[in-house]
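To: structure subgroup
Subject: Chain for Friday's discussion

All,

I'm putting the inputs and outputs inline so they're searchable in the archive.
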Amino acid sequence: MLEIIGVSSVAGVVVGAGVCYLWLQASTKNRFAYLEVEARAKAKAIAQEAELLLEETQSRLKTKEIKLNARLRERTQSIEDQHRELVVEQKALKVHQQQLDALEQTARYRVEKLATLEARKVQEIASAVGKMESVASLTQEEARAYVLEKVEEQSRQEVAAIVRRYEQRAKEEGQKRANYILAQAVSRYAGEFAGERLINLITLPSDEHKGRIIGKEGRNIKSLEMLLGVDIVIDETPGVILVSSFNLYRRAIATRVIELLVEDGRIHPGRIEEVHAKVEAEFEQRTYEAGENILIDLGLFPMHEELVRLLGRLKYRASYGQNALAHTLEVARLAKVMAAEMGGDEKLALRAGLLHDIGKALTQDRGGSHVELGAELCRRHNEHPTVINAIYAHHGHEEPDSVESAAVCAADALSAARPGARREVLESFTQRVKEIEEIALSKPSVERAYAINAGREIRVFVNAQQMSDNEVVLLSKEIAKEIEKRVQYPGEIKVNVIREMRAMSYAK
């Protein structure tokens, strides 16, 4: 029984082992089949990627091939163009060579003809000498001298006629050339007509501001006119006031001061003085920047700082109604064009034209000739001699010594003479008003003097510590007498001498 149980146990174990083996074998087959499918999928992906890479590579190669073919075609076309140009140049060279050969042949023929004529002349002179010896019983030497004298006289007349003909032709050609240069310069530069007014118009937010500007008992407007040196006109025109003065710089400062005061709203003598000092400093900076911008636009750096500042100051200077800065820029650009046409230095002509009237920026403060002031200023700052010569030459103090100086003189005449550029009446008025101020400023103890009311009144401010009230009366009469003697004017001029005493202390 035990044996039967043992055999059956062994048989069971064997059967179990067989089943287990079969199960493991089946499991292994399934696993290998999964791995095989996975491997085939990866292989297929790799093959597809390889195909994509191959297609991309072929596309790149094709693109490169197209670019190379295009470059090859371009180079081939360029070589063909160069070859055609070379053929054209060779043909032109051949034509020039033929022309040169023809000229050489003509010259050779003329030389031979001249030699023939010279030989014939000698023969004719010898024949004439022989005839004269036989007819007039002259010796050979006398006859030769006579003939030579006649030939020389005839030659001199022919030479004189030729010289006159060529001189006349040179004058005509010179006139045509000068007209051409002027026409080119004027046509290539078209400037605006210049004209300066004597008044500035200030727009107010409301008519209420007119009362503020006038102030209590007129103290604000009196303070403004005394400090700014202008005439302030407040009439019934709604929303505006007028600032009048012949001095452009003074009028511009006054306009800016009033605009700032109106904007701020606080208008009283102390505030007026404060704003005036601020605006004066602002205008000094503004004039320098204006001169600097002009040099940047024209490309004329470097230049001394004083010249730059005075160049900007020309914006507030007028000559015969023509703005001095506009006139200066016009002359500079015209001179540049004319110098270029005549083969001169464009840059130097531009610089000389820009500085030719620089002295006018100083005449209102110093007086004297703007030519002398400008030349001395440029000489002090080591400007080019041509610039200094142009300053002198444009008013006839010297002769132009270069093409550039001559161009500046011509440009100055063009700018001043064109229609609408200048107004003589305005210049005579400003000259009269300026002369009145100079008379007052020449007196001792006078600090400031302003001509107002279109030149019908002058306000003179004196140093209160150096002059008494009685001396003020005498000074007003003295100024009035000198104005009567030196100045021509219509109507009458009121001389108003002001002696103001100020006391200042601080509470600490």
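Points worth raising on Friday:
The chain is about 70% helix and 5% strand.
Residues 261 and 267 are 6 Å apart (CA to CA).

D.
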